[in-house]
Amino acid sequence: MRRTARPLTGTALAVAAAALAAAPAYGAPAGDLEVSPSPVAPGGQVAVRTAACGDGGTATGDASAVGAGSLGLAPGPQEREATGRFRVPPSAQPGTYEITATCTGNGRRVTGDLVVTLTSGREQVHPRGSVKTGVGGALGPDPVQTAAGVATLAVAAAGGTWLLHRRARGDGI
Predict the structure, then answer these.
(1) Which residues form the signal peptide (predicted)?
(2) CA-CA distances (angstroms) from residue 108 to 82, 84, 118, 161?
């Protein structure tokens, strides 16, 4: 038992070390297209940037998957990154869209994902109003219908009591 435990432990450690070495660092890896903010609501402004084009590089971006068309990426405040902006159309549907950019100097193509949601993610939506179940309630929206329902129940209760009283006396129905 002890002889098989050591090779299995060694194998498990080797697999874990390989997985950690392959995991990307925090943020977008160099060479990818960073899209922010993500998620974004329809109508929101999105910034894209990449370091894949090199120092002072430019790129042509494509956001047509979400319906925004093409955009240009120019050297940003940090010369080693190309940056650009576009607006998500108000008619965009929720989902994940691939945004691409092609560097003009070296022809390298990079991609990033944009997540579109109905809300921006910063605000919480709380439900309002009543549920239309067809059952109604004691404090319904229409006081006339509530009064009619109460009167109907009172008449039914009085009639049932009267019939049970006659039956108990033996008068018949």
Answers:
(1) 1-27
(2) 13, 17, 33, 88
Cα separation of 33 and 45, whole Å? 16
pTM (global) more than 0.85: no
Question: Measuring CA to CA, which residue among 123, 114, 67 is closest to residue 91?
Answer: 67
pLDDT tens for each residue of 75-108: 877 778 899 999 999 999 999 999 999 998 888 9
The structure tokens listed for 94 are: 């929720």
Q: Could you count the other beta carbons within 10 Å of the beta carbon of residue 83? A: 18
Residue 38 exposed, middle or buried by CB count within 10 Å (0-12, 13-18, 19+)? middle
Is the CB of residue 81 less than 8 Å from the CB of residue 7? no
The SS3 of residue 6 is: helix
Burial group, residue 133, by CB count within 10 angstroms (0-12, 13-18, 19+): exposed
Closest among 97, 109, 98 to 52, alpha carbons compared: 109
